[in-house]
Amino acid sequence: DMIMFKEIFIRIYQLIMRPSAAWQKMDEQGEVAQSLFFSRFLFPIMGIAALSCFGNVLGEEFNAQTLEHVLRLAIVEFVKFFIGFYFLVFLLKEILPSFSGVREKEHIERFVGSLLALYMTVDIVVNILPKGFSFLEYAVLGIFYVIWTGAKIFLHIDDSKQRTFTLIVTIIVLVVPIIVERILYLMMPGINR
Predict the structure, then answer these.
(1) Could you give the CA distance from residue 2 to residue 59 in angstroms, rounded to a whole number?
(2) Percent of the chain topping pLDDT 70
(3) What is the C-alpha to C-alpha distance for residues 63 and 14, in angstroms, rounded to an integer?
(4) What is the structure's pLDDT at 90?
(5) Which of 96, 100, 119, 109 is CA-nearest to residue 173?
(6) Using one digit for the tens of pLDDT, what is the confidence trace for 41-52?
(7) CB 12 within 8 A of CB 118
(8) In which element (H, E) is residue 129 found?
(9) Is 32 a residue whose pLDDT tops 80?
(10) Tell me, what's the pLDDT at 31?
(11) pTM to 2 decimals?
(12) What are the percentages of helix, strand and coil residues in the chain, rounded to 5?
């Protein structure tokens, strides 16, 4: 469905280029947006991130061993964001009462999913581009500003607590998928990027 992919691209573009407007629009959307969030945004982009792992073998000899390696990478890519999403939602539900922000599960899920979508976008770009562009992995650090704006506009965190909240959430959003990825690599010996 090309319309769905266009909507995904537009949402990610807006989160990157105009996060305040993107969060404001998401805040105004209600249950309809929540019901479509998983099926028309989060899970498709997880699938695209997993498929992007096949970009790692472009220009290489393709055989059964290469296919097995890429399939393992794709599984790790999908699972690290899938498990990471639910773990981050759990952590945010535990953390948010300290910051007196929005506590609805749906808001937290859309907040975390949107942040992970940016993380996945960076992974997709890094997987598709040649190895010399691996410095682009650091683009994910820009998520700090997106969290900063989302904390105020989408989660309604008090100004006095916004900086602390942003720092804590940035760290856990960046670290949780990496921890899940490392655990999966330990469970599948012989697999590296």
Answers:
(1) 28
(2) 96
(3) 40
(4) 96
(5) 119
(6) 999 999 999 999
(7) yes
(8) none
(9) no
(10) 65
(11) 0.92
(12) 85, 0, 15
Q: Distance between the two ends of the chain, CA-based, in angstroms?
A: 31
Q: In the prediction, which pLDDT does 55 show?
A: 86
Phi/psi of residue 49, each to 5°? -60, -40
Give the up-direction half-sphere exposure of residue 130: CA atoms within 13 A in the CB hemisphere.
3
Residue type at 139?
Answer: A
Position of tokens 């969290």? Answer: 147
- Kindly state the tokens that stand for 41: 């945004």
Distances, alpha carbon 188 to alpha carbons 40, 47, 179, 180, in Å: 31, 20, 14, 12
Q: Which residue has the higher pLDDT, 193 or 28?
A: 28
Residue carrying the six token digits 């535990």: 94
Q: Which two tokens stand for residue 104?
A: 């609805």
CA-to-CA distance for 192 and 82, rounded, in angstroms? 20
Q: Which two tokens stand for residue 45?
A: 């982009």
Reference 77, options 159, 166, 5, 177; nearest CA is: 177
d(CA 32, CA 38): 11
pLDDT over 90 at 109, yes or no:
yes
**The tokens of 153 are what?**
């506009």
- What's the CA gap between 38 and 43, in Å, rounded? 6
Sign (positive or negative) of CA dihedral 31, 36, 39, 43:
negative
